[in-house]
Write a structure and sequence with these properties.
By secondary structure, the protein is an alpha+beta fold. It has 14 helices and 23 strands. The chain has a seven-stranded mixed sheet. A six-stranded mixed sheet has the order 3-2-1-5-14-13, with helices on both faces. Strands 4-7 form a two-stranded antiparallel sheet.
Length: about 500
């Protein structure tokens, strides 16, 4: 048996390929960024062809660095930015337009129409989702509404739609396929049947012929061609779902937060979906072929790490994103400065596309250190708001939060996260849990590991942050955050 597995991690800003050994250690990884295309305020696009070229490059580079060939891999997995929508021509295999990224807000009017026509409650009952710009289904409808040629081609069955996983799987295997985790983010899949809802597709205005086949997440999708010829594609997981597997969050109530471009929290709710009444979304956590799906409640924060990039690129306050912790540590507290990073509106639990970014509480006393601290604290406040919603929906008290992603290395942020949330925050030794989750899935399907639970042996705690802030100080911070949120609303 081959002694390695591989994983493609196609994210919002870059693509990576990792090779993982039987002990769960990353032996080789390559990464390449792709362009962020910003045609208008609120619009965010990617070039799917560039993403595929970069994917080929990172795969070849990581294999070369490890001295391996695809046949040395027992299988490969895909994990991906989830709600980004791609349309391509079935005959040529070429994209017919840029991909519309999950952060894009151009569908806000359309989403209001869908909510009014279809009914927000009915939509949530079927899909677990609100009508929001976040999800990929309305993005496809927008493309078809704004290009008559695309609409005609779609009606003829000449086009294929998919999220990024489908685009990569098409290029790797020739199959038009997705998995239950990515399909659950389209606003088109019935959560209970794990299939496309024909009535919903018709009412939203998306031809069913556009849509990929839905499969379990951990499954044999077939042999690869091209750069990975010699191995099989064995897992597809949306990025946050892959992090659930990578964090070994397999028990009911296990909760993880991935701090990337945004911050994404999932809490495992078992084999039955729980309808949220607190602004969260119900989603599929993962599914192994032949087994029931495992569900989760999720809260998505649109802006986390990207706010630090904004400090670096737009304001020039730091040279490297890693410098933000040292700058924030030059002050003892936020100096009553609060930052609401509603660059694309507010996601869970508020779902307010009308909100925009606000910097509040400024006086002459404020320094760039206070601004850096306010940016970091904004991420923690948003995550805490989602945790409170999870407590309300599940009726249970969370005991700890497993964290990963680049910002999990920021000790100041992790301590504040613990303080403001009243939870232990646990950082694993391996914070690359997203790419590891996809690799673990591929290994499970290939028989490298017998069960999903077998990967728990690879998870190890590195650091634990415990709450230490005085309750009165927490209450004062909460009051300031609430005032800043109020001032961000109704801007658009």
């Amino acid at each position: 048996m081959a002694t390695y597995v591989g994983a493609i991690d196609q994210g919002t800003t870059s693509s990576r390929f990792a090779i993982v050994d039987l002990q769960g250690d990353v032996v080789s990884m390559a990464q390449r960024e792709h362009a962020q295309i910003l045609p208008k305020p609120g619009w965010v696009e990617h070039d799917p062809s560039e993403i595929w070229r970069n994917t080929e490059w990172v795969v070849s580079t990581a294999l070369d660095e490890a001295g391996l060939s695809p046949s040395d891999l027992a299988g490969v997995g895909i994990t991906n930015q989830r709600e980004t929508a791609v349309l391509w021509d079935r005959a040529s295999g070429r994209p017919v337009t840029n991909a519309i990224v999950w952060q894009d807000t151009r569908t806000s009017d359309l989403c209001r129409e869908i909510a009014a026509d279809f009914g927000e409650g009915r939509l949530r009952r079927i899909t677990g989702l609100p009508a929001a710009t976040y999800f990929s289904g309305p993005k496809v409808r927008w493309l078809l509404d704004h290009d008559a040629d695309l609409r005609r081609a779609a009606d003829r069955g000449d086009l294929a739609f998919g999220t990024i996983d489908s685009w990569l799987a098409w290029n790797l295997t020739g199959r038009h396929v997705t998995d239950v985790t990515n399909a659950s983010r389209t606003m088109l899949m019935d959560l209970s049947t794990l299939s496309w809802d024909d009535d919903l597709c018709t009412e939203i205005g998306i031809p069913v012929a556009l849509l990929p086949e839905i499969s379990p997440s951990i499954d044999d999708f077939g042999p690869c061609v091209g750069v990975l010829e010699g191995t099989n594609l064995r897992t597809i997981l949306g990025d946050q779902h892959a992090a659930v597997v990578g964090q070994a969050a397999f028990g009911m109530g296990d909760t993880k937060c991935t701090y990337g471009t945004g911050a994404f929290l999932l809490t495992n709710t078992g084999e039955k979906p729980i309808a949220s009444t607190s602004g969260l979304i119900t989603t599929v956590a993962y599914q192994r072929v032949g087994q029931p799906a495992v569900y989760a409640l999720e809260g998505s924060v649109a802006v986390a790490g990207s706010s630090v990039q904004w400090l670096r690129d737009n304001l020039g306050l730091i040279k490297r994103t890693a410098d933000v912790e040292a700058l924030a540590a030059t002050v003892e507290d936020n100096g009553d400065v609060y930052f609401v990073p509603a660059f694309s509106g507010l996601f869970a639990p508020r779902w307010r596309p009308d909100a925009r970014g606000v910097l509040a509480g400024l006086t002459r006393y404020a320094t760039k250190g206070h601004l850096a601290r306010a940016v970091l604290e904004a991420t923690a406040f948003q995550v805490r708001d989602v945790l409170d919603a999870m407590r309300n929906d599940t009726g249970s008290e969370l005991t700890e939060l497993r964290v990963d992603g680049a910002m999990a290395e920021n000790g100041l942020l992790m301590q504040f996260q613990s303080d403001i949330s009243g939870l232990d925050v646990v950082v694993p030794k391996q914070i690359e849990t997203t790419v590891l989750g996809a690799a673990y899935g591929a290994g499970i399907d290939a028989g490298v590991w017998d069960t999903v639970g077998a990967v728990q042996n690879h998870w190890q705690e590195d650091r634990r942050f415990t709450p230490s802030l005085d309750p009165a100080a927490v209450a004062a911070l909460d009051a300031g955050w609430a005032k800043a949120i109020d001032r961000s609303l109704d801007w658009v």
